[in-house]
Design a protein that fits this description.
The protein is an alpha/beta fold and about 425 residues long. It has twelve helices and 16 strands. It has helices at about 5-15, 25-30, 60-65, 70-75, 90-105, 120-130, 180-190, 265-275, 290-300, 320-325, 355-370, 395-410, and strands at about 40-45, 50-55, 85-90, 110-115, 135-140, 165-175, 195-205, 215, 225, 250, 255-260, 280-285, 305-310, 345-350, 375-385, 410-415. Mean pLDDT is about 80; it is low at about 230-240 and about 420-425. This is F-box domain-containing protein.
Length: about 425
Amino acid sequence: MSWHNKALHRLNLCTDPMARLPLEIQSLIFLHVPISTPFFVRYRHPTRGWMPRPTPDARPMVFLGVCRLWRDIALSTPKLWSEIELELPRGPEYISLCKLWLTRARSLPLSLSLHGSLDLDESVQDLVDQYSHQLERLTLSPLWTETPGPGIPFTTEDMLLPSLEILTFQATDGFKFDRMTQWLGILSVAPMLSRLYLVDVHFESEGDEELPSGPLTMACLSILFLGAPFFWDLTGDQGSTCRILRYLTLPTLKHLSISSSDLSYKEFVAFLSRSSPSLELLRLDLTSDWSLPMLSQSLRLMPTLADLTLSGVRDDCLIDAHEVLPLFDTNLSTTPDFLPNLHAIRMSMLVQRPIDYEMVLRVLTSRRVSCPIRLKSFTFKVSTSTSGLQIPGIMPDHVKTALQQLITDGLKVRIGNVYPFTVSRR
């Protein structure tokens, strides 16, 4: 090191507190900087045409141009290179740069997100093959297509995903798979998968597919989300989202969210009976195919539930919110031990008359007094398909006083209209 560089180094140590920290501490600081995930974009090279380039304001690229020290720290911190988002399709240079990027992560678990046109691609297949043993998180976000397609830019033949824990398929506006076996193939080679999110995904009818003779048992899956990202129907005639439940057995499932209009009561009960999970959280969207006895019987198969959300705001839903409320009244002889572990209830449903506040108060009081687990949170939002009906209605003074006492005692209560509108079937 020259005299000039030594002098600059000593000056930097005096003026820059960051430079006085051990390299390990500086590396940890880089990891906690709230900067977006690196996303590869295109730029026009003066002689080589369109080339891939990581976004310069994303981590870790933002650290590379500050100084030599920061660059060295970034390049020697594998965790900074362990996640990446790719937009497809791209050329071979793009995939080569991705491989260089992921090589810097060394042997750490990887997070890979693929966006765009997710047709089968040999270069993507090669990329996934090379790093499949390190993948911990995989996100697929395809573009919308009118006709059913593969939707997965690689095949799982002779592939293992031994470290994959979180798998997300998030379509932009309803994606149709032409083969159920594509997803079952992925799930069968991911034994450690613990979270599965299928957002706005629809499966075509099986047709001539050669499907497994029995359900696939996934021993580690604890969180499953099926359907649209909000509680309204985006399926139309695009195929069944929930059909995948026919082919799964999930004994360790803890959280289940189904916001889709195609859930069959018969298949749902069969899935619960077959899996016997100790569910703690359920979010369920109700439609015209469901009746109150069906809902009651389904919930009785999940006695460990602690957090329940029911949505039935489509104007084809046949269940009135006032029919559901008595299920949670533990003072009634028909429901003394109904879901004893509930600590949170959320309902967004239709009503055919103003809110019965006396009924609401009875339910809340029974859940605070008679249950081993006291109710902590209650949300009751209603809508109506009846023209001119005034909701939520007027709350009697004695109910206000009683509810205020429950709130003072620690219960969180929200009662009112569903906002902003009632959603109809498309």
